[in-house]
């Protein structure tokens, strides 16, 4: 596990996906439902791609109505898991979604989904790596380079970092300004050649290709230029602020630029 020396032991949870809010309310998941999901998940591992996609959709919908977090423990053919750090997350669409860019900038801005789609789009194909060990190889993401939005806003002298907030109301992340300007850091609108679905952090998420997936904040709603890096949700729980893949698990990933 990549965490800061001497830091408190982080929870046994997937940092990109789960830390169910124990205060959340909802109907418990029944034993038959859990067993049925387990069977579906196991079958999906060997199923055709179209069945895997349907299985992922099913598990994602189930996770939206599962305050216990149990659904996130189930295997699925696509390799992703579905969790949130809150008991529920509002859904946003083209009419309700807004992304703000502010902080130490000359021209604060607000973007609708259509505005982001109208900007130059870039595609990255790279392995998604979770700090807890699971990975999904050769995953494509498409979107606007974060550097494009920063340049449009005009970063002021003295700025050194970028903070990201999310419309789940709880999650946050940060990068240094140098990291944020990399070509392999996207404000992503698409994943695997489809619009980002809600369960994958849509309609817009951050994608930081060279780092563990907890840095790629889901449900992105705010970009704030700051003087210094502000530890995010999982950094406050013991994970590294600099989350380069390979730092702690023996991998040496090539640059994704």
TrEMBL record:
Q: What InterPro entries is this protein classified in?
A: OxRdtase_Mopterin-bd_dom, OxRdtase_Mopterin-bd_sf
Signal peptide (residue range): none
Q: Which domain of life is it from?
A: Bacteria
Positions with biased composition (Low complexity): 7-23
> Where in this chain does the record put each Oxidoreductase molybdopterin-binding domain?
88-234
Cite the Pfam families for this sequence. Answer: Oxidored_molyb
Region feature Disordered, mapped onto this chain: 1-28
Protein name (record): Molybdopterin-dependent oxidoreductase
Originating species: Streptomyces lonegramiae
